[in-house]
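Running this now, will post back.
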Amino acid sequence: MGTTTPPRTLAEALRARGDESLAGLLRARPDLLSPVPNDITQLATRAGTRASVIRALEHLDRFALQTAEALAVAPDPAPYDTLLALLTGDGQDDGDGRDDAGAAITGALPAALTTLREQALVWGEDARLHLVRTARELLAPSPQHPSPTGLGPTVAEATAGMSPGRLQEILATAGLPATHDPVSAVAALTGLFTDRTRMAELLDTAPVEALSVLDRLVWGPPYGEVTPNPAQPVQWLRDRGLLLPVSTRTVVLPREAALHLRAGRAHRVPEPVPPALVAAAERDPQAVDRAAAGQGFMALSTVEELVKLWNNGGPAILRAGGLSVRELKRAAGALDVTEPVAAFWIELAYAAGLLAPDGETDERYAPTPASDEWLDLPTQDRWTHLATAWLAATRTAGLIGGQDSKGRALSTLGPDLDRSAAPEVRRRVLALFASLPPGTAPDPQTLLARLRWERPLRTSAPGGPAAPGDASDLRSRIALWTVNEAEMLGITGRGALSSQARALLDEGPGEAAALLAPLIPEPLDHVLLQADLTAVAPGPLERPLAEMLSVLADIESKGGATVYRFTPGSVRRALDAGQAATDLHAFLATHSRTPVPQPLSYLIDDVARRHGHLRIGAASAYVRCDDEAVLNEILADKRSATLRLRRLAPTVLAAQADPGSLLEGLREMGYAPAAESAEGDVLITRAGARRTPPRTPPVPVPEGPPVPDATLLTAAVRAIRAGDSAARAVHKDAPDTATAGSLPRTTPAETLATVQAAAMTGSAVWIGYVNADGAASQRVIAPVKVEGGFVTAYDHTADEVRTYPLHRITGVAELADEQST
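Update: finished.
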């Protein structure tokens, strides 16, 4: 094929491309690489498969998709001018009274066509544009899937099963000359509908009610139902072919008539230009960074609190997987957030690898060993770890509380929460944030409009609007969730993208951490003790201080300052963790900027004096105490009846309850018992003792094949080119009956002589080869060495040096001069 010869097939069009253009196709449609096609013909075939074409169509922007939809209703092939007219109209008034934005369409159409050509959805020169057959089938109108343009079938398609007599009646009523040739009759009716003057004259005679019927059908759907005895306006339209029968009860407005009524437009509202992002507010960039840093610090505190909450073993896992509604409510109460927000933090900690199932028989969620490493990181590095995990996660917390396709409730940490589109939507939303000047907060509605233009709402079968709950509607919901989650996580501040988030997206975690570090307040090493048994932390505390204080006191309120309250229960908790009263007094004196209040000292001494006075062990369980009066008091208390206690000795009671239940029961009765081991030693319970085995974070579910890197693309293009050369190789002195692609056949002596000669001259030859499994293939090789019954050669098809047994080579032939050079 000469360089000026127009391509006749998609394969020829791809073959004429350069290597860089082929690599661009494989980069845009990575599914074509699984596995690497043998040659250009196989690549073209794979590019035309239904699944691949649907995937490619779903990645087009709105105007490129509108261009493909216009080509689907245009003749095949369609000249460029015809396509342009379908998008801009014919300049006549269509009754809508609006500007057709013809200049914008004219300017944007070449770029849209370039996109379609690059993705192998359109091929051919401007004079003969071909939409690939599968895309035409997907986008062309049918009763099951009307065209996205709202156009119906052509006159020829709609009258394919009509009797000649009925065609003659339509021609006569429409004032057209009679003809007994059905083809001529269809051509005459088509000519009427495409003639602006004659069509206008025909519609001038139509009843007003008939024009109203056409107005309802003109922009789609073009199908309507009729009764056996239709009204007079509908009958008028049927008699003149403006409504053609599809079935006994269904009629359709033919495409040519609809285009006349639309003034030649395929789309009611062409959108050649993406909607502009509108700024909702403009703020000081430094204020945005500070607000985002503060929110990011609160996010870290929330996740830390969640990890501590489940330190000694978290909630049990449901049989169907995930967290129960009761446990989610409990976590939300402990974190002081709403249940949807708690679900987000739990899912984020899980995605970051900080929480996981413990793998026990009675399986529960618990912190992972990685959570301890995360807690030891600097604050800024902990934030980048969470933010990076959020960007890549496919688990979508916004779905929690909804239902899956089978009507089952979606639970926190449960299955079926992965949505492969989530990472791409998050990054695109943040990229739109980043396209605005620093400190600018976009309007959410214009943000959604822009995203819908870049990825139009579509159903799984092209040809109809998106239904609520389908994948395309989900993309919009993910975008709104992204805006809210980014604010909670500190990616944005006051509605605008922060500088540290810009650095995270563009340069990576290291640069983001460096920008965030100066904005994070320095942790404090002190609190302010007050006489009402509270302590005020005026800012974030150093980790050892915060951990000890969280054991010794209960958090009463959070905010710019955290308020801790000391209670008998919280002091007992500290004593259970192995602290002595003297240790607690020393701790408070060291870390308080105010004197230790006397009531607090009395509280610690009072609880410590009673702590451990009772000892709990396993009998099933027992209680021992040196003070017989205390045991008498317990036995006399009606609340101890459920523990089923009995006296074994003056200082020992036995119970049928287990030690843990006995311990909790006595504490609820107001005592401060301590657990002891079999040796009689007091058992110390420390926070953070339970960890899962080493666990890796959940792997995101990718959306289709991964984008190949440059090395893979280069190797793939080279292999496809080499395979195509082998498949189309023409050898010298080929008989007239030989066909391109057939295996060469030569005798063993001729094979040996030819490869030896090629090795001496360094030329390439064409061989047929049968492997050990009996699979035949053809290859282009450059022999390097021939010895011992083997030929070592550079295989152009595989792009590597290989060794072939001579007895498996069916034949060999020299390449034609233009192929060997």
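Residues 614 and 630 are 9 Å apart (CA to CA). More later if anyone needs it.
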